Description:
The protein is of the alpha/beta class. The protein has one domain: TIM Barrel. Helix content is 31%, strand content 19%. It contains 8 helices and 13 strands. It is globular, with a radius of gyration of 19 Å.
Amino acid sequence: MAKHIKHIATKVGLPLVFKSSFDKANRTSSKSFRGPGMAEGLKILEKVKVAYDLPIVTDVHESIQCEEVGKVADIIQIPAFLYLLVAAAQTGKIINIKKGQFCAPSVMNNSAEKIRLAGNPNVMVCERGTMFGYNDLIVDPRNFEWMREANCPVVADITHALQQPAGKKLEGGGVASGGLRELIPCIARTAVAVGVDGIFMEVHDDPLSAPVDGPTQWPLRHLEELLEELIAIARVTKGKQQFQIDLTPFRD
Length: 252
């Protein structure tokens, strides 16, 4: 996947950071695939980093993981477990903080500041949807604007944001995440038009066989087409510019 995605990203002129998880620790079902574990997973990520000359982002789930992960990863991702922030910040790596599905966007101001107060100015915040009742997430485009108040780059997770948590029943019992893959272009277009600084997305060459998050994996065969469209939107949008609203009476 790193080889193919790098080829496409280079072709369309986009900088790429490769993300994969050594442990999907936040699974609701004990039957769900979690990954190879930290030791083996970091070996794989290091091979990817060296073989394809790619920066790496991966997540941590415990503070004791931060130091070892920091030896391989260029960006450490915090999956809404905010107690990890200081330990992650102390690695000196870029920290990507995902907004909890239960959090208001204003919370991210404090989260980003916590990284800075730990001596690390390298932080970005990520919108990944908000819980809407049971088994569903919605994306509020206002959050992209409000999260800029954290004074750091804003990233849109356009695939996890379309999950339907625990919305898919498994054969033999239990549940897993469902998702709305067909809406990925919709959320992506919206985020880029509003003016986000980066896109986070899951891509797979065989989504129906993906061991994790299959319903929200974007097919590799359509990646180049979607990225080209997003680049075209980014070139014309004024989303990052604050609109100067004139409230004085209009006179013809």
